[in-house]
Structure formats: C-alpha cells, structure tokens
Design a protein that fits this description.
By secondary structure, the chain is α+β, with helices and mostly antiparallel strands. It is built from 3 helices and 4 strands. Helix 2 links the parallel strand 1 and strand 2.
Amino acid sequence: AAAAARAAVASANLDHRITVLEAFSTDLALELPERAELLVHELIGEVAGEEGACAAILDAMRRHVADAARPPLSVPSRASTLLAPCLAPDPDLLAKAAGAGRALKLDARSQAGRPLAPPQVCEDLRFDE
C-alpha cells in the first residue's frame, strides 16, 4: 500500500509536499522529518473502534501533527457504527460464523437479516475534536 501511495503522490507531482511513511505511528522511536499538517489513516474495522483507532489516532495527533495544523486534521475525520436488531438467522449459520471467529454479517435485504427496528448509532468517533 505504501508503494502504491508513493507512486500516486509522484504521478500527481506532489512528492515535494507529501512524504509517505511506512511505520506504526505508535512506535516511540518514529521521528518525522517535521510534524504533519494532516493525518491519513485506515484504522477502521467492521465496528469502527475495534482496531484501537481512538488510542492510535489520539497518540498520532499528539505526537505527529503540528500544533498549528487546521481542521480537517484527519482523513477520515469521523467513523460511526450503526446497529439494528434483526431476526435470528438459521442456527447453522450462527455456528459457522462462531467457529470461524468472525463477526456475523447479515444481508438486510434477506429474510434472515431483516431489521426489526431502524439502525441506531452505537459509536460515533470524531477524530478532529
């Protein structure tokens, strides 16, 4: 992904303004050439905060983004998770998902995934506040 990002930056003739770094922002040894004006990340899981996005982004903002930077400071700047109760699916489907160690995803257009109520916000992460 970093190589593709570098190629896109170069093809847009922005390599004099944009530096693509391949590292964990939480690495305490990471030193940037200068503090950034914008944080670009992809830390959003199926449930917005499941990959530790809040802690990592807050740390990166504190240590790597310039104090004088102006919003938006982060791309994406917000992520929400919506949940809705739905009809219980076939027990075999539940067992298969549990055995695979994955979240069960249901198609809201199918009978098994038909919502019983409108979706409600479960979490709303705002990274620029």
